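User: Is it possible to get a 3D structure for a protein together with its bound compound? The compound here is BV8. I've pasted both below.
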Amino acid sequence: MSLGVFDTGNIVILTGAGISAESGIETFRDKGGVWERNRIEDVATPEAFDKDPPRVHEFYNARRRALGAANIQPNAAHKALALLEERLASRVLIVTQNIDDLHERAGSRNLIHMHGELLKARCAECGEVRQQIDDLGTEALCLHCDRKGAMRPHVVWFGEMPFEQERIAEALDNCALFISIGTSGSVYPAAGFVHEVRMSGQAHTVELSLEPSSGESLFAERHYGPASRIVPHYVDRLLAGEAGFAPS
Ligand code: BV8
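Assistant: Yes, that's possible. Here is the predicted structure of the complex:
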């Protein structure tokens, strides 16, 4: 398959909450978003969990229940990225900040959840990670070390190290195309990826989102609109060998 200017080289795709917005998952910093109704310091830091574990559990339990609702399904943007991976296999890596499982449900497999996964829990004592479909509470038992009360959501809170940083850095260093989708560029280290890509080589950089992010000027190509429209359109152009030029 000819991809025009991207015939060789890897593609790294960073996704944020905007790709899941049209699937019914709330974004964080848009009007009415998650951080408008909850203070980060109360629900998404290790200190918050130390101080008030039931409150933090309830915050994630509510989001886990919402993710399980029948109407929450991958949208055309998730599906387009899965199609891209199907066509190009291991050349495509998705690095998502999202803790939902909509990329997997759309069929993506080469995927890093750098901020963790809502449908998993981890024992803070022994590190064991397990599937978590139901509510999690302070009485939960770790089936590995038998400790009671140490299970926490398998997510990365503010002040904690995101997952798989080495693998991500290597992929960013070696990519020919970096695409950022549906993220406001507010949270580091993800917000700095476009800068890292530009510093390390000749990769083409593309932003696809509803509106310009704070890193907008660092992207060589930019398209704005709902992800379910602009992502399939961009993937179609890429697979047709027509992408990589100035936006039309
Ligand atoms: C760390 C997890 C190091 C679970 C989340 C000053 C400078 C630099 C860094 C810092 C600093 N002060 C503090 C830091 C570090 C901090 C940070 O970046 N803070 C910010 C606020 C300044 N970062 C960290 O703490 C990170 N760790 O740095 O570790 C370290 C070193 C040594 C020792 C220890 C540690 C960890 C960050 C992880 C935070 N976890 N959540 C959960 O979800 O509850 S972050 C949270 O924001 C979400 O998880 C989300 O993934 C992330 C990013 O948000 P977005 O996805 O971008 O969502 P947002 O709502 O903002 O934007 C949505 C976008 O979509 C918008 O642009 C909108 O226009 C667009 N959109 C909307 N609808 C659509 C759409 N686009 C297309 N179509 C649509 N339909």
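Residues 16-18, 21-22, 27-30, 33, 44, 97-99, 115, 155-162, 182-184, 186-189, 209-211, 213, 226-227 surround BV8 (CB under 6 Å). Residues 77 and 149 are 38 Å apart (CA to CA).
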